[in-house]
Amino acid sequence: YEVFESNTENQQTLHRIRTRLENIPSVVPLEKFSRDEQLAYWLNLYNVTMLDEIVKVYPRPELESLLTGKDSILARKTLVIAGVQLSLNDIQFNILRQNYANNPLLIYGLYQGVIGGPNIRKNAYTGRDVYADLQENALEFVNSNRGTESRNSQVFRVAGFYARNAIYFPDFDTDLTRHLLDYLEGDERAGLQK
Fold first, then answer.
1. Which of 32, 36, 77, 190 has the most CB within a 10 Å radius?
2. Dihedral sign (CA 114, 115, 116, 117)
3. Has this prediction a pTM greater than 0.85?
4. Is residue 48 a contact partner of residue 54, using CB atoms and an 8 Å limit?
């Protein structure tokens, strides 16, 4: 965020990228793109919008409070896509969740701007690589101390990120455990299986 803090040119460039992404469906209907290209589009739009919104309030040390409530960054209708006002929550829970079979892999592609969430990728998502990139994000996050941690034989900690995304895990404990076991490696995997 330091790159944007006192550099209005960088801030304007970020906002222009957001605006161009926002305008794509007005120029070329999304139905013209493959499902994977549409997924990449929505993830990129979400992440650029999140960055743009955070840059507006940076350097605010505590971003968690900006992610909850009726006026959160996630809930505000800050986007207009093909004439429809959308929030970041609309993208995550209405568009992505419903159109991609409630696939929990999607949550690893949605940058939240906080330490307890997945990192943002250095490159944009593409239709060709979107699922491979999401798998890579999941492996990195789940196996980092930001995602999971086996504290001892009695305690296995998972990030609050999963509680915020509980809708992707209908039978939360069972579904989350199964999901984590798909990605956990080494000692952490053994810690969860105890």
1. 36
2. positive
3. yes
4. no
What is the separation of C-alpha 47 from the centre of its chain, rounded to a whole number of angstroms?
Answer: 7
Query: Minimal CA–CA distance to 44: which of 138, 129, 166, 116?
Result: 129
CB 167: neighbour CB atoms within 10 A?
13
The sign of the dihedral angle between the CA atoms of 81, 64, 141, 94 is negative
Q: Which of 20-24, 69-73, 79-83, 152-156 shows the lowest per-residue confidence on average (mean pLDDT)?
A: 152-156
150 closest CA partner among 116, 105, 186: 186
- In angstroms, the Cα distances linking 182 to 33, 111, 143, 177, 178 are 30, 21, 11, 9, 7
The pLDDT tens digits for 136-153 are 999 999 999 899 887 776
104 φ/ψ angles, rounded to the nearest 5 degrees: -65, -15
**For the CA atoms of the chain, what is the radius of gyration?**
17
Tokens of 173: 């404990």
